[in-house]
Amino acid sequence: MTSSKTALNSMDLFDVRAELTGEECMVQDSVARFVDEQAIPLMREAFEQHRFPRELISQVAELGLLGSSIDGYDCAGLNSICYGLICQELERADSGLRSFVSVQSSLVMYPIYSYGSEEQKQRWLPAMARGEAIGCFGLTEPQGGSDPSNMKTHAKRDGKDWILNGSKMWITNGSVADAAVVWARTDEGVKGFIVEKGMPGFTAQEIENKFSLRASVTAALFFDNVRLPEASVLPGVTGLKGPLSCLTQARYGITWGVIGAAQSCLNEVIRYTEDRILFGRPLSHTQAIQIRLADMARRITTAQLLSLQLGRLKDRGVLRPTQVSLAKWNNCRAALDIARDARDILGGSGISAEFVPIRHMLNLESVITYEGTETVHQLIVGKELTGVNAFG
Fold first, then answer.
1. Which residues are catalytic?
2. What are φ and ψ of residue 185, in 5° steps?
3. Which residues of 224-250 are buried (b: 16+ CB within 10 A; e: fewer)?
């Protein structure tokens, strides 16, 4: 007898899908439909026009993708695997779209939920979940993004108020945000402040001429004697623990997101090599191409298994930042290498926006840098292994 075997899913060789719950599959499928039908058709043009497709925000909100891991406050209350799958599907369209959701969910709504007052939660979280209010996260500064301890932005008490001065750089959503969660030095330690659009002394300037994340808004924030009431302070945390905990949330989502970009590149290059005839046969029939495709699949599979286990650890409440660093480092490097190799396989077509690898490749140059560069994550893992801090 001969047994019939079902072909493996080329985007999921280890059948990670079989490890998902019904709810997790449903979330992935609903986001995938949105991405295929609404997001992907817009992203190439948005990238070329250096424009964030704000028309997608209402649909993203209706799907419950903003603050999806938060319980209550009109948020979906989904688990960490669901959030990861959301990031994966969104980045399959474009890193800029996933970045928008990551910042809103992990860097703005998360600190308000975790460290904010009940009044702050009630005011901002439902509005942000509905996409009616946009947020940004102000940590990185011009003089050193990888060293938050070198923060220059500061706030000083003035009676019952605070006076905020300084600047932040490379801020996603910065010039379209209704509120910025800004981290600043104070005499009492690092504190988070909710700075609202239109406050005197607060300005945001969009950064132009980017060749990466062009479908995402990036800005510089400036604070010139901005007067903030005590009600603007996040009361639940003091010190770098606050912003660093937010980064852990965002980095977790990134480990999943870049898998989507890598899958998009591999899927396109498989189709291309099947149709491209050189020297009398399809490119996909050659050993050199098959080896390169297999290597892409290997990297994607490794990334999927890392992120799946990471999500399970997160949902059990035992996730360690070092584990996130290892996955962010591995998965971003894998995705960027896949995008670069896919562009190369496409030959001259690889530099055309008609094909997705060049756009993903350019975006991933930013993704591998933000939320901690590759070197930062290597050193975090190194410190875990040796017990020695080699950052200085």
1. 371
2. -75, 145
3. eebebeeebbbeebbebebbeebbbbb
CATH (residue range 135-232): 2.40.110.10
User: For 236-271, what is each residue's pLDDT tens digit?
Assistant: 999 999 999 999 999 999 999 999 999 999 999 999
Q: What DSSP character marks residue 178?
A: S
Which of the four CATH numbers 3.50.50.60, 1.10.10.10, 1.20.58.100, 1.20.140.10 does domain 241-385 have?
A: 1.20.140.10
The pLDDT tens digits of the residues spanning 329-350 come to 999 999 999 999 999 999 999 9
**Residues of each domain in the chain carrying CATH 1.20.140.10:** 241-385
CA dihedral 158, 201, 153, 381 (to 10 degrees): 130
Compute the radius of gyration of the chain from its Cα atoms: 21
Our measurement of the distance from residue 317's CA atom to the centroid of its chain's CA atoms, rounded to an integer in Å, reads: 21
Report if pTM > 0.85: yes
Specify burial of residue 365 (Cβ count, 10 A radius: 0-12, 13-18, 19+): middle
